[in-house]
């Protein structure tokens, strides 16, 4: 178990994510009474995962793949959506970080191949282009 991370989207709910030896993402959840069985969410991650919840029953998980791009999957309350790329020229081993402060805002950060911090965000209708933070 590598890159263990957890998030909660509501009372009595914990979602746990990790990377296995084949670099696939795995998930299990606690519903207030019992833990689910493990489920594979696939992918071939080179970074640890990052996860955020932006509303009840809404999760988004991020990871960097070998191509140096940020990839994500999200849970819409009914099903997991397939991996999709958010692009970038990121450090394949660099850990992303994610946060949300409303249903219309998700922020994700990751170290770039150039050693600088990069940021991309969901504005409620689209992913805004990458921005590079100043400094080292």
Draw up the topology in text:
Layout (H helix, E strand, L loop, with lengths): L1 E6 L6 E6 L5 E6 L8 E4 L7 E6 L2 E7 L5 E6 L8 E4 L9 E6 L2 E7 L5 E6 L4 E6 L4
In short:
The protein has about 140 residues and is mainly β. It has strands spanning about 1-5, 15-20, 25-30, 40, 50-55, 60-65, 70-75, 85, 95-100, 105-110, 115-120, 125-130.
Question: Would you kindly provide a written description of the structure presented here, covering whatever features stand out?
Answer:
The chain is mainly β. It has one domain: Fucose-specific lectin (Neuraminidase), CATH 2.120.10.70. It is 0% helix and 51% strand. The protein has no helices and twelve strands. It has strands at 2-7, 14-19, 25-30, 39-42, 50-55, 58-64, 70-75, 84-87, 97-102, 105-111, 117-122, 127-132. Strands 1-2-3-4 form a four-stranded antiparallel sheet, with no helix packed on it. It has a four-stranded antiparallel sheet with strand order 5-6-7-8, with no helix packed on it.
């Amino acid at each position: 178990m590598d890159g263990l991370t957890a998030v909660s989207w509501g009372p009595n709910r914990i979602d746990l994510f990790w990377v296995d030896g084949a670099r696939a993402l795995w998930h299990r959840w606690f519903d207030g009474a019992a833990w689910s069985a493990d489920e594979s969410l696939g992918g071939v991650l080179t970074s640890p995962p990052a996860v955020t919840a932006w509303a009840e029953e809404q999760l988004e998980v991020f990871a960097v793949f070998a191509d140096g791009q940020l990839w994500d999957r999200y849970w819409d309350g009914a099903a997991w959506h397939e991996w999709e790329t958010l692009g970038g020229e990121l450090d394949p081993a660099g850990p992303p970080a994610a946060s949300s402060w409303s249903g219309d805002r998700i922020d994700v950060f990751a170290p770039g191949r150039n050693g600088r911090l990069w940021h991309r965000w969901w504005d409620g209708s689209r992913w805004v282009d990458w921005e590079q933070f100043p400094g080292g």
